[in-house]
Task: structure prediction
Amino acid sequence: MNRESDIKMMVDAFLSKIDKKKLLKIAREAITCVVRNEQLERIKLQEHSQLLRDHGASFVTLTIQGKLRGCIGTLEANQPLVLDVQEHAVAAAMEDYRFPVVREEELQSINIEISRLTPVHLMDYSTQEDLVSKIRVNVDGVLIKANGRRATFLPQVWEKVPDPEQFLSQLCMKMGAPPDLWREKHLQIYTYQVEKFKES
Result:
């Protein structure tokens, strides 16, 4: 699929308010259960809309007073969206290597944001200047691959890193590479978009 059809796919298939509330509720319940060492509720797919039963890729982001507390997800749609969100909610709370596991006393302070991803699109660019001009600030999530490693930033990262060149440099560092790697080497760079929503 090309970038235009990816965007059209999302526009034609936005989640309903009910679906968003369901996903946020499932994520909240999953985090609460795992933090309290309780049994996770088994999701009955037949009780959900077709969009939630369809395969989907998601990221679940946890924040406390606007500060990141955990973020885990996938770029590949390999299971029903509702199951994907439940899995990554648990992982964001317990498996993000940057943070200790979420404690029970933090549950009331945590805010949950869910990002539903479009398929990734390989960028066709000729020069570094061409690359910078084609990445859309505040719209595109970016995935880079090099030397068997990869890293991604969701579109939400633009809020903190609004400059495209700094965005790419920090993404290289996240991958464990020198910040100027994108300037010195033609990398595999992909973009995607997200439908994001969070607890009020």
User: Anything to note?
Assistant: The beta strands are 57-64, 67-73, 110-117, 121-122, 141-146, 149-153, 188-192, 194-198. Residues 1-9 have pLDDT under 50 and may be disordered. The chain is about 35% helix and 25% strand. Residues 17-35 form the longest helix (19 residues).
